[in-house]
Amino acid sequence: MRRISLLLGATLCFMSYTNAQEVKEKEVKRIVSTLAADDMEGRAPGTPGIEKAAAFISKEFASANLLPLPGESSYLQKFNKYFLSTTSHLLKINGESKDWIVMPIGNNPDINWTIDGSYTIVHVKDRRDLIKALRSGTPEKNTLVLIDSSLTEFVSAIHGHFSEKVFDTKEALESAVEKAKSGSQIVAVLEQSPIADDAKIEINIKRTISVKPYENVGGMIKGRSKPNEYVVFSGHYDHLGILPPVNGDAIANGADDDASGTTAVIMLAKYFSKLKPERSVIFVAFTAEESGGYGSTYFSENLDPDKVIAMFNIEMIGKESKFGKNSAFITGFDRSDFGPILQRNLKGSVFNFYPDPYPEQDLFYRSDNATLARKGVPAHTISTTQIDKDQYYHTVDDEVETLDIKNITSIIKAIAASSTSIVNGTETPTRIEKESLKK
């Protein structure tokens, strides 16, 4: 019986790899080029650009005849968050006004500083030191964090995770504001030129409570024999929006990060819509990954994790991996047998999946798979990014011209083929141990 099952599995995998050849390079280029075009304005949440992107993804899902997600009437999964938005700020160095990025950390709506010896000044030039400084909690004294310009790529994350931290209700934010008024504060400034510690620094900031609408874009195929078991394919379609201009270009197009992954999700939706899978398959493009992971968090909170068999999160597949062409890596490889299943399903092909080669980067916790993984789901991210040396990451130069479209197409075909046994219910990855994950 086992021999028959293995033979059947091998046959299905061969057929799926053959069928995956229907994923066409021309179509991949069309989709990724549309998502990363200048008129999408960098797809920052709450902007016309991301709304245009959501409409485009919805249209592509409709062409694949997807159903809306459970409980939704359209492909848009909408939710609101509350945050403190800056209405005005003034920064003066030795009496001279500076048009620099200023980010209040915490929940005090009004900051009026003239910095002297009673303040703490911290200079940061390293990512880990930056995170440590911003996560220090309520400091003993008001603290100015001066961020070296080499860390500009982290500005959006600072806004989302620290400066514009969101709350589910207005009442919760109002409570946090009242509490913050009695404590010391942190203000982060992106240092465009060196500031001496004895310089006269004045900072004035006013913020008000605002509501920010968000939209995930999702659809599904209902499984034939196991409709209550879900396999999720995901990527985030948001990016950084408009950045300080470099050589006249201010649009962070986000071609690799993550128009490439969103393109894969769309192509996989069209691929599986023709195959009538046994398990239900969800395809979702998350919002606000760059600014706090709010889209994937909301999605995860509205889905029973015990019904989710696996999650294929696809993040930055636009360039050749360190293992060469026809390869990608899987984050958290040792946390379940998700990776070995995919490897086995591709045996005999030209494509290979590898364990994450950058464990020091904590990539498993830095993408949209993390929320469901914390709930025990074998949720992993597939990527090719050479994160340690990618010159285009989080810059205005992350454009379609930097992508390897042929290699993206190869990766999408490999994901389609390697996932077939999971989608068709013949294999089920082991669960991730909840208590083993960071919080």
Automatic annotation (TrEMBL):
Keywords assigned by UniProt, alphabetized: Hydrolase, Signal
Keyword Nucleus assigned: no
Keyword Ligase in annotation: no
InterPro entries reported for this sequence: M28_fam, Peptidase_M28
Domain of life of the native organism: Bacteria
All copies of domain Peptidase M28, residue ranges: 216-417
GO molecular function, one term: metalloexopeptidase activity
GO BP: any one term: proteolysis
Signal peptide range: 1-20
Database matches in Pfam families: Peptidase_M28 (PF04389)
PANTHER family for the chain: METALLOPEPTIDASE M28 FAMILY MEMBER (PTHR12147), PEPTIDASE M28 DOMAIN-CONTAINING PROTEIN (PTHR12147:SF26)
Protein name as it appears in the record: M20/M25/M40 family metallo-hydrolase
Species the sequence originates in: Chitinophaga silvatica
